[in-house]
Predict the 3D structure of the following.
Amino acid sequence: MVPEKLTFSPLSRRQIEADFSGGHITSDAGLLLLREVDKQHQLTQRLATVLDDARNPVLVRHKLQAMIRQRVFGVAAGYEDLNDHEALRADQALQTATGEDAILAGKSTLCRMEQRVDRQAVVKAHELLWHHFIEQHETPPKEIVLDFDGTDVPVHGDQPGKFFNAYYDHHCYFPLYVFCGRHLLVSYLRTSNRSDSRHSWAILALLVKFIVSANKPAPTFGYQDCPH
């Protein structure tokens, strides 16, 4: 039976409740659940520590961690386009999820944040995922199966690096994903004019090296859909 009211952890003096007896106030109340999950795993908090923020602290209006949450939670809610945040920045559900009780960053500010991300930051961000993966095991696993999969991401505009892929019959990117069970370990953007195996073995070597160094004794590895 669904309860009439759910109470979430508060934000400052703002009490947060989900009341099923009232009308619809926001279409993105699920963001509050993401907020609770993120508070438990602290992924966005960790991510903020590896991204460079060269802004003058005196002039900063929107904290880096809040902007990361805004962008990540927005994508999770289906708002991939930065233009969406011109309206979303005033949404109280997203504000609460990011830990703010005021207007959030606009699309230009979020764009500048993304443009500051370099290759080194991407590697560090992936290492956070790997550490989080290790933390989910109370005892070192005896066997680890890594699932390598490439899939198409259709491109509808004139983005740099777009190519026509004959197999998928449209212009797209061809990112590589690596999973271990339900855990995402790698999300690597690639163009679609290269082979399926592009950079797969290099990523595999990095993953195996990291997992072996973090687990004693070393687990046995298995691979699914690993390109040759």
